[in-house]
Amino acid sequence: MDLIESVQNNQVKEWKKLLTRKGRKKQSKYVIEGEHLVEEAIRAKAAIETILIREDKWSGYLDYDADRSVMISEEVSALLTDTVTDQGIFAVVHMKEEQQSITGNRPVLLLDKIQDPGNLGTLIRSADAAGFEGVIIGKGSVDLYNPKALRSAQGSHFHLPVIHDELLHWIEAFKKQGIEVYGTALDERAESYHEVSSKDAFALIVGNEGNGVDPEILKQTTKNLYIPIKGKAESLNVAIAASVLMFSLYK
């Protein structure tokens, strides 16, 4: 097996570009890092182009697809990692075409201008764990394929549809189907989530970490919900709040 040793290698330079949003968009590919994510991609039959394995880890992954695997040096591994201590295994994956495959038969999570990649990944992971049908990411949100977002999602983006689209379009479509749309806010229309009974299908919208859900979107919701705070904390992190609501409203 040949070793890709130099960080000046042309292929390495192309892989490095995938750590930027511009590079990912241009190549329609992204990089995942770590044994768990690579194995999730293999199980999901994702369109893996190449598996990159650090030379000192090579013997531990002999059962992986040899035709798609390449050996890289520690220097190349260090160039591609987004963590302090990398696991020495990566995969280059083709982005799948986003299909409008969300029906509304089960709950759907809508994200409005989420900025932190860790929050985005955690929201997707929680939606997956709670049994939601899919996630719709509105304009102005951080990139799904940001390395930190992928790491936080822990492979959940392979398990359910995650699409980028205009939220108002989906809100209108859900309401036409008779599906309730819940915003999250502290306004005169908001009510405690304790007052809402669980349902088999609904849409839940959570918003930007600093500003919440856009007021224009909140005008279109069926109800706006809030989580009562019993202690002295002013608020909850958006991913934590959304997780509480998802598991409480869908049982």
From TrEMBL:
SUPFAM superfamilies reported in the protein's UniProt record: alpha/beta knot, L30e-like
Key word Heme present: no
User: Entry's InterPro entries?
Assistant: Alpha/beta_knot_MTases, MRM3-like_sub_bind, Ribosomal_eL30-like_sf, rRNA_Methyltransferase, SpoU_MeTrfase, SpoU_subst-bd, tRNA_m1G_MTases_N
- Name one molecular function that GO assigns to this entry: RNA binding
Q: Which cellular component terms (GO) are annotated to the entry?
A: cytoplasm
The protein's superkingdom reads: Bacteria
Q: What is the name listed in the Swiss-Prot or TrEMBL entry for this protein?
A: TrmH family RNA methyltransferase
